[in-house]
Amino acid sequence: MRQLNRSALQDEEAKLPKETSASPVTVLQIGEGNFLRGFFDWMVHESRKQGLFQGSVAVTQPRPSGKPKIDALAGQDGLYTLVIRGLENGASVERKEVISVFSEAFDPYGDWARMVELAVSPELRFIVSNTTEAGLVYRPEELTEGAPIVSFPGKVAYLLYRRYLKFDGAADRGLILLPCELLERNGDALKEAVLKYATDWELPETFVDWVQRHNRFLNSLVDRIVTGYPDRVQAEQWFAEWGYEDGLLCTAEPYHLWAIEGEPELDEELPFNRSGLNVQWVEDLKPFQQRKVRILNGAHTLMTPIGILHGVEHVRELMEHEKLGAFVRSTVYEEIIPSLPYPAREMRDYADAVFERYLNPYIRHRLADIAMNSISKFKTRLIPSLSYYAQRGERVPTGLAQGLAGLVRYYHVKRNGDQFEGRSLSGQPYTVRDDAKVLDTLAGIWADAEHANEALIATVTRILSDETLWGEDLARWNGLASEVTETLAGWTAKEEQQ
């Protein structure tokens, strides 16, 4: 069977790839992975199809280990297939698209000169990245002329310096940088690291001034589940249907959101909103970040311990569970959303979209994977909602209290070799992954309670009052310890009946 490349396409299909290969490189993309290909590159493709975006993308990898995928992209003339599948307004959808946005794919560690050549190209306007949170970190590094720079922020600092020299610091030759790493204030983090390298390398103050005044490091929040290459059986079925093989086949959910902190006029240059995509230019990212953390991430953290305790393995399975699914929905709608300082209708619409995403039949999201470091996640995602009621002198609502009870019971653990193990309500073992100090603290409290035959309310009070776990004394909150204890006692009674 043929491999996907331009020659494998029919005449009409090949038209856009030919246009792409002839277009100037306006975007340098540092990141060859599934996410950018199922998110940003798909957006560029949609805009090119509508004639709204005229440039092309040069893609390269941030680490030497990414070379095989870069080589594969080059071997397929920069083409790959994206299949979007899942639920959309309650209906199942499946859409296939051959993405054509890359005019070149190259290895910067083998062709550093090309990297520099792109940096000083007058047509270049954007640098887009997804190097993981670990990649968006400053690490001291020597500058050796002609040798590749390893760190991502270091690469950016050097490329901007070469551009500054090429155009003699011209105000209109700065770039727009769009880091997509899952880090709050990601644009600010990249800018800070770039300036540190400028200091380390003793680059001129006029360059530092040019970076700060004439380049845009835009903070943004990205949201889409890109599931990558499907299982082998599904891939082979599609290849037989399409008449070609694609080693870079990628799949993604229908939902997508990119909130970018910048003026709406930037859509003239990056016309994603005009292309009908859910890309929003905003003054402040905080509302988007807060609703994601408190609703999407918060619902995950709410459901996970309780789901595992009840023997549920996946998010979709839990949402389809008659009682547990209803518990998650009611807690989000009736308790979390009222604690947010935003329009309730807007938050409910967002929650509706979240729950539809949870029900995507093509995504198997294991609760055991979400459960890692649940204490710190609960502090960030759900404690603010509990605190909203406690600070008003009100009792924490039942759903949130039950969520905390689930967390406390999930962390009823004992050390087993190098691991910490808990038991579900039916007695099935599970392994808890978290910070060793957190696990030692909780295992110790539960062990002491069992040794002293301590009353459950006393154990719960000790756990909730431990400020090393929560950052504050939760046991002081009106009725919270008794509410958690009541839930735990009910589960214990059911266990004893089994």
TrEMBL record:
Residues 284-488 form the Mannitol dehydrogenase C-terminal domain. It comes from the Bacteria. InterPro entries: 6-PGluconate_DH-like_C_sf (IPR008927), 6PGD_dom2 (IPR013328), Mannitol_DH_C (IPR013118), Mannitol_DH_N (IPR013131), NAD(P)-bd_dom_sf (IPR036291). One of its GO terms (molecular function) is mannitol-1-phosphate 5-dehydrogenase activity. Keywords: NAD, Oxidoreductase. One of its GO terms (cellular component) is cytosol. Residues 27-269 form the Mannitol dehydrogenase N-terminal domain. Pfam families: Mannitol_dh (PF01232), Mannitol_dh_C (PF08125). GO terms for biological process: mannitol catabolic process. It catalyses: D-mannitol 1-phosphate + NAD(+) = beta-D-fructose 6-phosphate + NADH + H(+). Residues 1-22 are annotated as: Disordered. NCBIfam families: PRK03643.1 (NF002969). This is Tagaturonate reductase. It comes from Cohnella cholangitidis.
